[in-house]
Write a structure and sequence with these properties.
With 185 residues, the chain is mainly α. Helices cover 78% and strands 0% of the residues. It has two domains: 34 residues; 136 residues, no CATH class. α1 packs across α6, α2 packs antiparallel against α3 and α6 packs antiparallel against α7.
Length: 185
């Protein structure tokens, strides 16, 4: 029932992305930035998990703070981001593709947010936005811009498809969690 609002938000998001892409493209071209990725650091897997967990907690908490969330909820959101993002990354490490891993992580976020809403009267939106935001695949969006700038249209479309599948999986995970709610959407 909110198709007009959804389409206008999608159009707004696309326009913002294109504006950022244009600005980033200009900076990359003028500064001669090499966008190629450095090789990953070789660190022990438990340390990698610990660093991922720490980064997820900090990022989730920081985004939650941006929305003027109470301190108790910031802590809960940070812990939820830690669990969900680590789940996504571990699922990917064991061989699951990024989109299904993102789906299961978003489903986890949605179910925990539903439980927090029912048991502690914490709005679902306060619990879902920040952990989901940190899982948006900015690297693939960046790759789309860089590859289109280089004239590599096929690779850019492939990166856009990966990005779209992951974002869609995040949305589907949250939507699936809504099915467990007894109220109307």
């Amino acid at each position: 029932m909110q198709t007009v609002a959804a389409i206008s938000r999608l159009a707004n998001g696309v326009m913002i992305l294109l504006a950022v892409a244009l600005g980033l493209s200009i900076v990359i071209a003028l500064a001669g930035v090499d966008p190629s990725r450095p090789p990953p650091l070789e660190i022990a897997y438990p340390i990698k998990l610990l660093l991922r967990a720490l980064a997820s907690f900090i990022a989730g908490s920081a985004f939650s703070l941006l929305f003027n969330t109470p301190a108790r909820t910031v802590l809960a959101v940070g812990l939820l981001a830690l669990v969900a993002n680590c789940l996504r990354l571990v699922l990917n490490d064991v061989g699951l593709m990024l989109a299904p891993a993102a789906f299961f992580s978003a489903l986890t976020i949605g179910l925990v947010a539903l439980a927090m809403d029912r048991n502690f009267n914490v709005p679902r939106i306060a619990m879902t936005v920040a952990p989901i935001v940190i899982m948006i695949p900015g690297l693939y969006a960046f790759d789309v811009i860089v590859l289109f700038n280089k004239g590599q249209a096929l690779e850019a479309v492939q990166a856009a498809a990966r990005c779209g599948f992951i974002v869609g999986a995040l949305a589907m995970g949250l939507a699936t969690a809504r099915f467990f709610s007894s109220e109307e959407p």
